[in-house]
Structure formats: C-alpha cells, structure tokens
Please model this.
Amino acid sequence: MLRTKVLIIGGGPAGSTAARFLAKEGIDTILLERNFSFVKPCGGGIPDAAFDELGIPRNIIKKDVKNIKLVSPLNNAVDIRLEGGFIAIVKRGEFDSLLREDAKVKGAQLIEAGFNHFEEAGKQITARVNINGKEEQIRTDYLIAADGVNSRVRLALGLKLSSAVYTLTTKIKNDNADTCEFWFGESHARKSYSWIFPEAEGISAGTGSSDPGELKGMLKAFFGRRGLNADSTATRIYKVPLWSGELYNKDNILFIGDAAGQVMPLTYEGIYYAMKAGEFAAMAIIAGKPSDYKKLWRKRFNSRFMIMRKLCDYFLRDDNSAEKLVSLCRRHEIQAATMKLWLEKSSDGRKLISFANFFRKVLN
Model:
C-alpha cells in the first residue's frame, strides 16, 4: 500500500497545478494520470495574463491571437481587436506535460495509473488504482478529483456527472488563421456556437450541441457555411461540462476543473479556471481546511460565472437572441468591457458590475 498526504486523480491542467502548489510547499503528493500521452481535444487558448499569474513559462506559447470575429446567424460580422493582452495558443500535449514535469521537479510523485474505486472514503481515504495492470491501494488524507467531465471519482461516490454540451472537433493542417472565429446559428450549433481557432499548425474547427447525434450533420453544415472542406480530416467528439456551481468538496475529497464543471458559460473557456481551482484546492489543503476551497473559488469567480450563465441562457436560446448578441458587440464600450473581463481575469468587482450593467436592460 502506498501512503501520501494528497492523492490527485487526473494529470491535466487542474490536477497538475494543484500538484505544483502542494509540492512547492513540501506536501507529500501523488499525481495519478491514466495515460500520460492523452491529448484532450481543445483549442488550447489561454489568456496571456495567466502565465505570469500562475508561474508558467511563456516559451510554451506557440501563437499570439489578438483578433476575434463574431458572425451572427444572418452573417452580420463583428471584428474585435484585443487590447491589453492576447489569447495564447498552446499545444495541449506539450502544455500538460510541462505542468506535470514542473510538479515532479517540485517534489510530486507522478504515476501512470487509473482510479478504480474507493475502499474507504471517510476521514481517511483509501483508493484502489490500476498500476501496470495490477490493482494497488493508496491511502491518503486528502483526494483531489481532477479526472474530467466523466469523473470516475464522482461516480464512485454516487454523484451524478455534470450536464454537458457535446462538441465535434477537427484539425485542418493545410489552413491557417490569426483570428478566433465564433459563428452562431441553430442550423449548425444548437445552444452553442461553431468555431475556427488558430493552432500552432493549422486550425481547429468544430461545433457544439446538446444532442451528440446531430453533430456530424451540423459540422458539415458549418463547413459549408464557412467554405471549408468537410472531408479533410478526422473528427473527435468530446463533452464540455455545463457549470452549475454545486460541487466543491465532499469532506476531504475536492473536485476541480471539468470534474467540478468549472467551464465558463457562453465562452466555454476552461483551462484558466481549472488551473485556478487547482491552486485554490491546494491552498485549502495546505491550511488544513478543505471547506476553504469553496470560499476561495466563489469569492473570486462565482459572480462572474452567474452573470455569464444568464447571458448564455439568453443569447444562445435561438437565432434571434444570437443576432442580438452580435449586434450589441458592435458597441465599443461593450467590446472593451468584455475583453477586459476575458483577458485580465481581474478580481475587481467594479469591472464585473460595469460589464453586467451593459446587459442589464436586455436581460430584464
């Protein structure tokens, strides 16, 4: 039986960040990742401010994106130039490996293994895991579930998985772009949007829907609208959790990132918030107060997520509402407030209130 102070299930940005902060403080930490070679389907976009905030080397950035394009269902387009920052594009495989390696350098133990179930999950936690085809036990004081939208830890505790939107993504290497494009229209994106994101090599294109069965036809429709070759590359389906803000910890088991549904409504941005959740969970464990994690996360992000949830429910409900969203984004003051909120990740409540006030008349 292995013994540790903290066991982290999942080696993506959330779990690796928690491990980095815990190991830096000398906390005995084991990080489990089922497959170190797994690369999550993801645009790999992160606000550049996150790199300094979280101590991540900027040389991992592959491309700087300073332009955003919104296209309404009726093909009305708005081009927005980002000021005061940019969207940093990374390769998810390289990025995740860098975070894990940094956690290892700081003292965390990395093990390629899958979580099976709990033998006990009280004040003391014993997890059964699969290491090289053999079931082993790991005993720990705290456990951090960072095992994604299909969290096995949630299921092992009898907790329902987060509601989710399904996405279908493809990579096109023989194309190029320097703008993040968001295309709205129920014919190819229901309760979501379709996208073109720049990548280190080529572009990522995809769409989302609450019904996975309609994704293939929707992606084809989007490619036709955008003028792309729908048969050019393979596609991958992935679930993106829908935030509800209900789950933070169950006694000494803490949930972070996609396992907690911490993806920003409307934009569906997740990497930054997953890493901050990892930091907050680590801070709570270091203090010996796992319930502090909820307080830290809610103080910093809850109002922001609640506002975006309302905007998402309103503007993505149908084509008329999406048309209104793009029209509103023509206003310079709304562009400025939105980009500041997106890029700066400021905890200044005044900026959040200013942003909310722009949309208050629409939502009321």
The first strand starts at residue 2 and ends at 9. The mean pLDDT is 90. The radius of gyration is 20 Å.
